Amino acid sequence: MARLLIVEDDVSVRTFTARALAAAGHTVETAEDGMDGLDKIKAAEGSFDLVLSDIRMPAMDGIEMAREAASTFPDLRLLLMTGFADQRERAAELDGTAKGVVNKPFTLAEIRDRVGEALAA
What is the phi/psi pair of residue 76, to 5°? Predict the structure, then answer.
């Protein structure tokens, strides 16, 4: 299966998502915000198969983290999550860097399916 990084500031969403994807057989690491996520991406030299990140977070949001990560690791796959319509529109700024946006709240089946689609893309 795949090596995933989940970047989410809400501990309950982060834990739920990590458990769901680990139960599907993926190796999952987590980060609390965009700064932490970017640090983990750099430490891993961009070797994650997919980074699943919230858009709206303190310190560094998911859009900024995605831009920074993609500038160093252009082949890194990113999938964004948000519960806010205006944030979903901001994902278009990434110009193809992200493999899509998952709307929150989501079900176990939905997040597994969307991650599978992003990995297959």
Answer: -65, 130
